[in-house]
Amino acid sequence: MLDINIATILWQILNFLLLAGLLSKLLYQPALHYMRERAAKVGQSMDNAKKAQAEAEAMRQLLSERLKGAQKEAERIMREGREQAEEQAWGVLRKAEAEAQAIQAMAQSEIRDARAQAIAENSDEVLNTVIEVASITLQKTATQAVHDDLVSVFNSHIWKLGQTDRQRVETYRTMMAERQPLARVFTPTPLSEDQQRTLADTLSALINKPVTLAIEVDPDLIAGLRVRLGDTIMDYTLQHQLSELRTDLKEELTRRLQV
């Protein structure tokens, strides 16, 4: 049978309760207070961390937005810069083209002026040469028949004046009324008797009085007749036609140079 000492057990329990109270007061409560303070600090730190994280996220978003804005601004600046550079390049190109066209137009104008001046300075010589060559050619090729035809044309024209230009006929008759009825006739070849008779009758009918012919031979006339009656010269020669041709060519050349 066990021998239990109640007093000893009670004393042990009392010691345990005293020790538990001391431990609670000296160790557990300070530890609990410390843990509560630590938990509060940890909670505050977490709150601060969350707040810092939120602020960091807000800052990140702000920076992101600013970065996007900066990128857009950079793209705008670059785009405007490219557009401005392209516009300046096109402006330089257009200016260069305009200057090139102006230089080309000036050069063409100077070429035309130089050509016109050269032609103008040499036109008389060129035309004289052309007419001279034509005259030499006609002198070699014009036949007696050509000369006779021109003489006939002259007579026919004078006879037709009575029907087509009575005023001109009266002018001839008035001019020769008080003058000697002498007609100086220039011909490249001698006239036959029939030609002389026909010509005298034609001129006599023109001034309404008998006409005397004074005939001179001038080979330079090539073919046809030149008749001086009073103050009037009637020229139906190839030389005269060449002279008129030269005048027409000169006028046409001048007109073209002025275009």
Textual characterization of the structure:
This protein is of the alpha+beta class and 259 residues long. 78% of the residues lie in helices and 9% in strands. It folds into two domains: 115 residues; 99 residues, no CATH class. The protein contains five helices and four strands; from the N terminus they run H-H-H-E-H-E-E-E-H. The N and C termini lie far apart (159 Å).
Which properties best describe this structure?
259 residues, alpha+beta, 2 domains, four-stranded mixed β-sheet, 78% helix, rod-shaped
Our count of domains comes out at 2
Strand content: 5-15%
Major sheet: arrangement of strands: 2-1-3-4
Share of helix among residues?
Answer: over 70%
Low-confidence runs: none
Order of helices and strands: HHHEHEEEH
Q: What's the alpha carbon Rg, rounded to whole Å?
A: 66 Å
Outline: rod-shaped
Report how far apart the termini are.
159 Å
Largest sheet: 4 strands, mixed
Number of strands: 4
Structural class: alpha+beta
Number of helices: 5
Mean pLDDT: 82
Describe the protein's topology.
Elements lengths: L5 H136 L2 H21 L1 H10 L6 E6 L5 H15 L4 E6 L6 E6 L2 E6 H21 L1
Parallel strand pairs: 1-2
Antiparallel strand pairs: 1-3, 3-4
Short description:
By secondary structure, this protein is an alpha+beta fold. The chain has five helices and four strands; from the N terminus they run H-H-H-E-H-E-E-E-H. A hairpin with a 2-residue loop joins strand 3 and strand 4.
